[in-house]
Amino acid sequence: MKSAVVVLPGLNRDRDMIAALTKISGKAPVTVWQTDTEIPDVDLIAIPGGFSYGDYLRCGAIAARMPVMRAIADKAAKGVTVIGVCNGFQILVEAGMLPGALMRNASLKFVCREVKLQVTNANTAFTRGYKPNQIIRSPVAHHDGNYFADADTLARIEGEGQVVFRYAEGTNPNGSINDIAGIVNDRGNVLGLMPHPENLIEAAHGGSDGRALFESALGGSSRQPALAGA
Amino acid sequence: MIKARVTVTLKNGVLDPQGKAIEHALDALGFGGVGSVRQGKVFDIEVDSTDKAKVEADLNAMCDKLLANTVIENYAVEIA
After folding, report:
1. Does B18 touch chain A (CB under 8 A)?
2. For residue A8, what are the contacts with CB-CB under 8 A and spacing of at least 6?
3. CATH superfamily for domain A3-218
């Protein structure tokens, strides 16, 4: 149950992610820096939230072109589990590791509150600890979480069960198409989501609904089930 | 030195809430008849070269790789 956390200039949720992974796996994750071209042997790589490179150009655009992202793409191609939260999700779509794009919230406002998520595919490496269609609590804090994909891409990811988390009815905080909060790649080993499950893992947080996500993901890539339709 | 201007605009059909907000603000300023506003980006780039064809090809590659997100944006390259 070894993990790595990516640290980039401008991220600010890296310590939250490190604390969560340390508590859940019992072992402190290794940290990898933007210029690292190799990543140690780990079961899970996490890209935390924040505002990498000041959100210059587009959220996640600069980080997505850093050497460490090539190393992460190589690991993902070998089946290592990768999770990107918030800015991490934006970085994964900018890097082309997940389909679609994340745009300015439809309200134009930064949203920082709790939402409810529906687990729309509980048969992935990240969600097998949840029940199908389970509703969980999760904090969100972002300005650019409005997921967009063209009609063909949307039909494909919906059809293939790649939409893993949806904002539960009435809680979509950003105008995301189809209420999409989190998606996986076609292989099912890369997850991006706007909500912050790492901030809801123990009683001190007021709840632990996010814990099962990391427990599932830390289970190891070898036990990862094939992606199946929701 | 070759000077170029790259314009990046949102594709049709992609929601532009910032453009919408600007449109409403123009209306509030009394500019009637503004049908639609779409916000984009302009990059003025100077390249130390005299080979226009190569620079144009490079600029297109820059757009594909970084300056535009072609999932949601179109771009145009104009060389002075």
Report:
1. yes
2. A33, A34, A50, A52, A53, A63, A66, A68
3. Class I glutamine amidotransferase (GATase) domain (3.40.50.880)
